[in-house]
Design a protein that fits this description.
Rossmann fold, 4 domains, alpha/beta, 12 helices, nine-stranded mixed beta sheet, elongated
Length: 457
């Protein structure tokens, strides 16, 4: 004990100019009766898999179970950023694990400056002091674990300083469920919907949404010494988790035989336990892209839902290139032309109840039962939704006009509000066809009539 530093309130000490950590065991009286020595050493090359993110100047959060090398990676990040990228780096070293014991930091952190913390309870104060007094470009901190430290981390990020740190938790989902640290990834707030909105979404009246912009831009889950999963956009990943979607992070692996990085398919699901569930026996094989031909279904809306759900699908311009057909319910009744085309080309046909995101999502769930959840995609009436509705309405008119001309029968459009119906009437006039608004609000809709036949009165 005489040869190591003083034991602080966390019962840890170190050996000067080394990375070794000495922890003590005390009896009931507080006397030290045992010691545990954890040998520390610098290892280079541990950040080769994520060097591009380190150089991006974006804030990075490392997650993973104990012993997978989080602190080792922080140490090398400090050295690379300070020595090779020539940025001003300050390491907040609470237990002297990153830069060792003593006043002179270990050479493993390069030219980074190290601020020691007198007691773990003061870590958040030292974090703020580093920003206010020492003009860092990058701050590195190990084990953010309290609400005060989480708030300090947000303050640092908001001041434009790149923040690199670790937190308690094995995966992003675990962190989101931690009320103390969830603010690091944007936090969770409860939102109460109106009766009609909850019914339209198909959800309960009270739902969970992300409260604010995440403190960290990128989250890296360290699965083991050779594999890690990267969430490039923490905000988007959290939104998907709250909506019940599966996460498909970018999985990176070190090939020991070649020493090169290997990026595995994005269709690998990373479970909270750090396990990798492959959707293919070949880790390099992408799932086949299914081409969908929309019949009276909004092409733009279909593309949006596919993009939102990150499905292996594309929208086909012709039925000859399609592997599946999505037909709007009103235009796929018995005797409809699309039924004949489906049978002729031997292409399965899926019925879409309406052109809303929810309706298209339900049809996609039939096509991709394992990739689409029951969560209803948010399609609330925002300014962008209004513009989207206009596009959907005009798409529907064009498809309906084509159907009217082919079948010589009247066709009813989807119920719309008065403003949208006016736009539809104007577009129908351009085709020299007659139209009429029928029904009562909120089900009032437009009926398009076929052109009169020669000799009709």
């Amino acid at each position: 004990m005489d040869r190591v530093g003083d034991f602080t309130t966390d019962n840890r000490a170190g050996i000067e100019r080394t990375l070794h950590r000495i922890s003590c065991i005390r009896n009931r009286r507080g006397d030290i009766i045992g010691l545990t020595c954890r040998v520390g050493r610098t290892i280079t090359g541990t950040i080769d898999l994520i060097r591009d993110f380190v150089e991006s100047k974006k804030s990075i959060l490392l997650l993973g179970p104990p012993g997978v090398g989080k602190t080792t990676k922080l140490r090398e990040m400090a050295r690379v950023i300070s020595d090779e990228l020539n940025r001003r780096v300050i390491v907040i070293d609470t237990s002297n694990e990153i830069a060792g014991d003593g006043d002179i930091p270990h050479h493993g952190i390069g030219r980074s400056r190290r601020m020691q913390v007198s007691t773990p309870e003061n870590q958040h104060d030292v974090m703020i002091e580093a920003v206010e007094n020492h003009t860092p470009e990058v701050i590195i901190i190990d084990e953010i674990g309290t609400e005060l430290e989480s708030a300090a981390a947000r303050t640092i990020a908001e001041r434009g300083v790149q923040l690199i740190g670790t937190a308690h938790g094995n995966a992003l989902e675990n962190l989101l469920k931690n009320p103390t640290l969830s603010d690091l990834v944007g936090g969770i707030q409860s939102v109460t919907l109106g009766d009609e909105e909850a019914k339209r979404r198909g959800t309960q009246k009270t739902i969970l949404e992300r409260a604010r912009k995440p403190t960290f831009d990128i989250c890296i889950e360290i699965l083991d010494h050779e594999r890690l999963a990267v969430h490039r956009d923490v905000g988007n990943a959290v939104d998907n988790l709250l909506r019940g979607f599966a996460l498909f992070p970018e999985v990176r692996k070190l090939d020991r035989s070649t020493g090169k990085m290997e990026i595995l398919t994005k269709k690998e699901v990373i479970t909270p336990q750090g396990q990798v569930s492959l959707t293919s026996t070949d880790p390099h094989a992408e799932k086949d892209i299914i081409s969908i031909y929309p019949y009276a279904v909004s092409r733009g809306q279909l593309e949006r839902v596919i993009r939102t759900l990150q499905l292996p699908a594309s929208v086909s311009k012709t039925i000859d290139d399609a592997e599946a057909i999505f037909a709007l319910k009103n235009y796929a009744k018995q005797g409809a032309k699309i039924l004949e085309l489906s049978k002729k080309h031997d292409i399965p046909l899926h019925i879409v109840s309406n052109n809303s995101m929810e309706g298209i999502q339900k049809a996609l769930k039939e096509l991709f039962p394992g990739l689409v959840t029951d969560f209803v995609i948010d399609d609330s009436m925002t300014a962008s939704r209004i513009e989207n509705d206009k596009e959907l309405a005009t798409d529907e008119v064009r498809a309906a006009v084509s159907l009217v001309m082919d079948t010589d029968k009247a066709v009813d459009l989807t119920p719309r509000n008065a403003q949208i119906r006016k736009l539809q009437h104007e577009l129908i006039d351009e085709y020299k066809l007659e139209s009429l608004s029928i029904g009562q609000e909120p089900m009032r809709r437009i009926r398009i009539f076929p052109p009169p036949k020669p000799g009709d009165g």
